[in-house]
Structures are given as structure tokens and as C-alpha cells.
Amino acid sequence: MLQQLLAIIIILFFVFRLVIQKKKNLISKNEFFLWLSFWALSAGAIIFIKQIDRLVASLGFSGSGINFLIYLAVLALFYLVFRLRLDLAKMDRNLTEIVRQMTLKK
Amino acid sequence: MKITCVIPAWNEEKNIAKVIADVRPYVDEVVVIDDCSQDKTSELATAAGATVFRHPINRGQGAALQTGNDYALSEGADIIVHFDADDQFLSSEIKDMVAPIISGQADIVFGSRFLGKKANLPFVKRIIIMPLAHIFTRLILGIRLSDPQNGFRAMSRSAAESIRIGNREMAHNSEIQIEAFRQRLRIAEVPITVVYHHFGQKLSGGFKVARDLLIHKIIK
Question: At CA A69, angle to CA A65 and CA A75, rounded to 5?
């Protein structure tokens, strides 16, 4: 219970920071809602951790709900890093093409 | 037939003038792509009689070669030769490299250190790196060449038009070979000599090539 409370406080802190960033126009509306949804989902997962425990057990997994959430989070992180790597590669390729056109125009 | 030699160069002020002077008798035009050198590569290459272009930022050998190909094609080149700026190839062998294209037997010609001519490969490269590279290129990439790690190549106009180099760094070498096989171009190998002045690509470079090829394949 205490751990859940601490986690919720940490999430509220990040949501507070998010609202400040939006007020200062440091992030776009879409970005604001994306991160707000992320933190809302995280808070939901923590509040309903017992139900997730039961769901995980009913699916045949032996670990607890929190373990399951961590596995999901790691998978999501891998995916996001991979997507970032691909986006960077695309930008890099476009940059090379721009450099080539500038070079040959001179 | 107009033969254009494309030489990518990065900080090659020591060798570039000699390389251009050596190559000029065998081709119609020498194009140097200076990949944002910090030394006098551009000035020396211009003085030596080459057509010089300079990338405003460093983009890698593969990017420089494609810039050279684009220019050569726009100027009506019939054959494009890729040659290194570090003086490790013999310019006199350019005529052997272009011969199969001139005679209509090949669309693309790859130089090979393992077809009879002497190659003073560094020991570690000969014993460890080259066999590993051979296994990787043959089994994973499907490249059936005697020397898949060689940058001395010649291509016909149509081959240069059909192969667009997307890998800006060292993976361009495998990429060109993969494309040549995939497009079923007529491929020839010609024995060449390589004079090593430095070690060249290390084993870690090989892993980077594999990674770059994979990423390029995904975003293509």
C-alpha cells in the first residue's frame, strides 16, 4: 500500500511537471496528451495492481502483476529505442542526400 | 568510351596528388570527392588536374562515391571506376578492370586480391578477419566473390544507374555487391594488387558493416 502511494506521488510529480511544460509551451498539445495518457495508464496499472495480479495468474503466468508490468515496460523501451534508431537512420540518409545536392550544385 | 575515375578522399593530402597523377593517363576524367577534409586535399587535388567537389560535412566513403557517380553520370560517363585515395591500388590495373566492360562481357567488375596476384595482407587480416568476412558475405549476404572486401571496382553506365549507394559508410562495398547479384548484372572479377600502407578495416568495422546493412535494409 505504501509502495503504491509512493508510486502515485512520483507519477503526480511528473504530471505536475508536464502541466508546467505545457503552460510554458515547451511541448505541443499532442505531446502533452501522449505523456498524460502514459502517466494515467501507469497510475491505473498501479491502482489496479491486484486485479492485474489476478489477470496475470489466470493467463498462466507465475509472476506477480508488477513483474508483468516491468516486462511490458522493458519490451516497450526496446521497441521505442529501435524506432528511434530507424528514424535517425532515415534522417541521416536524407541529410546525405541534401549534402550531395548542395555539393553538386556548386 | 568515356571513363571517369571517382576517388573519395578524406584528409589525404599526403597521397592525393600522386594518386591523381598516376590515374590520369588511364581515364578521361578524375573526380575527387573531398569528404570535408581538414587538410589541403581539395587544393592539391585541383592543382593535380582533378575535378573536385567538397562535401560541406563529412558523410563517409559510400556517400562520397555516390556523389561521384551522380556527377559522372550527369557528364556522360560510360564507365565509372572507383579508386582509393590512399595509394593502395595500382593505377596501371585500371585498364584490366575496364576491359571486360569495354568488350561487353560484364556490367560490373570487382578487383580481387586472391586471383593470383601478390597481396601483402597484414597477418591478422589474412588469418582471422578475411576468413570471417568471407563466411559472412557468402552465407548471410549471398555474395559469391573471391574478394568481397575490395573497393577497386569498375561499372558500366547502366550498372551505375541501377545501383544507388544508400550506405554512406563502409557498408557500401557489400551493398554494391549485393545489388549486383540481386539485379543479375554480369559480374567479372579481375586480379589486382593491393599495397598496404595501413591496417585498414578492423574486425569491429565488420560488425558495424553488418549492422548498417541491416538498418538500411529495414528503412529502404
Answer: 145
In a domain, A54, yes or no: no
Supply B6's cell numbers.
Answer: 571517382
Q: If you measure CA to CA, which chain B residue comes closest to A97?
A: B63
Supply the range of the domain harboring residue B75.
Answer: 3-219
pLDDT digits over B159-198, tens only?
999 999 999 988 899 999 999 999 999 999 999 988 877 6
Count: domains in chain A: 2
**Number of folded domains that form chain B:** 1
Which residues of chain B lie closer than 8 angstroms to A103, CB-CB?
33, 53-56, 67
ipTM summary value: 0.81
Give a yes or no: residue A53 inside a domain. Answer: no
Interface of A with B in 60-89 (CB under 8 A): 85-86, 89
Q: Shortest Cα distance from B146 to chain A (angstroms)?
A: 30
